């Protein structure tokens, strides 16, 4: 069985109750279940990790540097200035997709640039929790699991 890394950054552990008008009503557990369903046909399991600390996310990326087929990463606000997160993802050898629940470009100006997006295999924004499932589908294609 192959493992897909699902990483979520600060404040994403409170999805479902955090500004539902922006982030929706799905909880992180709902998202984890949807991603697991999406990749189950390829016999992938999902390792879901959420931290409010950048250092913990960096540690998890480094810990799972090998042994995973790819990653879905929602860095939350760390997209803006998460330089150590960026460096850890630069060293991650598998494809990974950056995901944001809200359309960051329709929001405050400070959210309009991601320091990690240029390294990602792709970016999905503004589609709510559906974005995670789309990222999982993309990773299945990138890893050749749909062939």
UniProtKB/TrEMBL annotation:
Keyword terms, alphabetized: Amino-acid biosynthesis, Aromatic amino acid biosynthesis, Lyase
GO MF term set: 3-dehydroquinate dehydratase activity
Keyword flag Amino-acid biosynthesis: yes
Catalyses which reaction(s): 3-dehydroquinate = 3-dehydroshikimate + H2O
Keyword Amino-acid biosynthesis (UniProt): yes
Ligand binding (substrate): 74, 87, 101-102, 111
Residues annotated as site: Transition state stabilizer: 18
Pfam family, one: DHquinase_II
The enzyme's E.C. designation: 4.2.1.10
UniProt enzyme class: lyase
SUPFAM superfamilies (UniProt xref): Type II 3-dehydroquinate dehydratase
This protein's pathway: Metabolic intermediate biosynthesis; chorismate biosynthesis; chorismate from D-erythrose 4-phosphate and phosphoenolpyruvate: step 3/7
Protein role: Catalyzes a trans-dehydration via an enolate intermediate.
Subunit structure of this chain's protein: Homododecamer.
Family: Belongs to the type-II 3-dehydroquinase family.
Protein name: 3-dehydroquinate dehydratase
């Amino acid at each position: 069985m192959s493992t897909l890394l699902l990483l979520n950054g600060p404040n994403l552990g409170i999805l479902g109750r955090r500004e539902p008008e922006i982030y929706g009503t799905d909880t992180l557990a709902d998202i984890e279940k949807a991603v697991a369903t999406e990749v189950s046909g390829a016999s992938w399991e999902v390792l879901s990790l959420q931290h409010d600390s950048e250092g913990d996310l960096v540690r998890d990326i480094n810990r799972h540097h090998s042994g995973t087929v790819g990653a879905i990463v929602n860095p939350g606000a760390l997209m803006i200035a998460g330089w150590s997160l960026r460096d850890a993802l630069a060293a991650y050898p598998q494809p990974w997709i950056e995901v944001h629940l809200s359309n960051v470009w329709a929001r405050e100006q400070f959210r309009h640039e991601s320091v990690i997006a240029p390294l990602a295999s792709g970016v999905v924004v503004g589609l709510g929790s559906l974005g995670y499932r789309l990222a999982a589908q993309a990773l299945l294609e990138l890893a050749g699991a749909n062939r």
